[in-house]
Write a structure and sequence with these properties.
By secondary structure, this protein is an alpha/beta fold. It has helices spanning about 5-20, 30-40, 60-70, 125, 145-160, 180-185, 245-255, 295-320, 340-350, 365-375, 405-425, and strands spanning about 45-50, 90-95, 105-110, 165-170, 195-200, 210, 215, 220-230, 265-275, 285-295, 320-330, 355, 360-365, 380-385. The strands form 3 sheets. Strands 1-2-4-3-5-14-6-12 form an 8-stranded mixed β-sheet, with helices on both faces. The protein has a 4-stranded antiparallel β-sheet with strand order 9-10-8-11. It is globular, with a radius of gyration of 23 Å. It starts with a helix and ends with a helix. The structure holds zinc ion (2 copies). One zinc ion binds near residues 109 and 143.
């Protein structure tokens, strides 16, 4: 079980990383600080930069990447940070105990959200002076806590002398918007793992409770759609114009009429629609940002077909050119090993943990790419919710966790390692 020193360290990590949140693929300082800390712990096998990525989607603009890198000033470290500063963020740490045994992987997200953190003085980060130093970004989803647990667990694994097999810690960028996992999986992030695990803090599970085997992952795809028409004088020659604004408006209504599905929950949302340049010009351009979600991969596949047909039809009807770009995506996950989650749940209960089975996420989480990939190759995978009493909901400027959940998550993962050894011996 956790020592006082470990418990304090978890809070310290969490509060440290809380101060400099960075959005997806801009987690440059975050990545560098993680590497520094892991090197200080004595880890040698740390991979980062281009080699841990394949095709990154949903990237910030080149300008954003450049200006964020510049904002960090001179970086004084003894390792090469060039690719990190190009937006190849995240890292993977491998550690071999030197004794034969399973290869166990853990994934932790590292990105923040473009939200301003509250200035309310009762908000713990304000009280204890670890508020975000960047008014445009905040760790409002608890990924600071995930990193803290990841670092704590890495340190535990490194120092606990009776462990066997090998461990991999995946610190993944750009989970928000589900951009990051697929790029890492395609570059081999989970190759060779016998097990892979992940957890999220505080989603509808109260403090002190572990949610075992998360259910209700939603499959999703995110698209940017651009329509191009032809500008013309709105009074003199409107018929010469090709109205991208009208096309986009019509497309929005068509898309929002798609989510009816007999196989389960289906969602479509047009979250952004920008069109036109001036009131007396037939609008030449329109830009839409759209997401589809479904309870199963099949539902998302059907919604996607509907979306492509709707764009095609709208373009034809309004005489527009169209471009669809996929900027994010995730799939669902159900473990195919029916005994694994209940077995570990019982083990946790017998060890004095309060648990709940199959908490529902009702959101998308791109860790599903990793969980599925490992199980497809014969390994086992599970996802957990680490219960926490929240000050406000996720993705809100007042979001805050109860910090005892750091310990809870850490303890759960150490128990999970014990449990794997137990079932591997059988
Ligand atoms: Zn989030
Ligand atoms: Zn999150």
């Amino acid at each position: 079980m956790i020592t006082i020193k470990q418990s304090e360290k978890l809070k310290e990590y969490r509060r440290y990383f809380h101060r400099f949140p960075e959005p997806g693929y801009l987690e440059m300082k975050t990545t560098i600080e993680l590497i520094k800390e892991l090197k200080a712990m004595g880890f040698e096998n740390i991979s980062y930069g281009k080699k841990i990525h394949s095709k990154r989607i949903g990237l910030p603009s080149e300008d954003e990447i450049k200006s964020h890198a510049e904002s960090l000033g001179k970086i004084d470290v003894d390792f090469d940070v060039e690719e990190i500063l190009q937006g190849y963020t995240g890292l993977i740490v491998d550690y071999d105990t030197g004794r034969s045994g399973p290869k166990i992987g853990f994934r932790f997200e590292i990105d923040g959200l473009k939200i301003e953190e509250t200035k309310d003085e009762n908000h713990l980060p304000n009280k204890l002076k670890f508020r975000s130093e960047n008014n445009k970004c905040m760790h409002a989803c608890g990924h600071d806590a995930h990193m803290a647990i990841g670092l704590g667990l890495a340190d535990y694994v490194k120092n606990k002398k009776d462990l066997k097999g090998s461990f991999r810690f995946i610190f993944q960028p750009a989970e928000e918007g589900v951009h990051g996992a697929k790029s890492m999986v395609d570059a081999g992030a989970v190759d060779g793992l016998d097990y892979v695990f992940g957890a999220h803090i505080g989603i509808r599970v109260p403090g002190g409770v572990i949610g075992v085997d998360t259910d209700g992952f939603l499959a999703t795809e995110k698209f940017d759609i651009d329509l191009k028409g032809r500008a013309s004088h709105a009074g003199i020659l409107p018929e010469r114009g090709r109205n991208a604004l009208l096309g986009a408006a019509s497309l929005t209504l068509t898309l929002h009429s798609l989510p009816q599905h007999s196989k389960g929950l289906a969602r479509v949302n047009v979250g952004v629609l920008r069109a036109g340049s001036s009131r007396n010009i037939i609008a030449e351009d329109a830009h839409l940002e759209v997401e589809i979600r479904g309870e199963s991969d099949l539902i998302v596949k059907d919604l996607k077909e509907g979306l492509f047909a709707a764009v095609e039809g709208t373009a034809l009807a309004y005489g527009l050119e169209k471009k669809i770009e996929t900027v994010g995506g995730s799939i669902v996950f159900r473990s195919k090993y029916k005994d694994f989650a209940p077995g570990f749940n019982k083990y946790l209960e017998d060890s004095g943990f309060k648990t709940v089975m199959n908490p529902r996420l009702n959101a998308s989480e791109d860790i599903c790419y990793m969980l599925n990939e490992v199980e497809a190759k014969g390994g086992k995978a599970l996802h957990f919710i680490i219960g926490s009493d929240l000050a406000a909901s996720h993705h809100n400027g007042r979001f805050d966790i109860s910090e005892d959940s750091l310990e809870l998550g850490f303890n759960m993962f150490t128990k999970l390692i014990d449990y794997i050894y137990l079932i591997e011996e059988k």
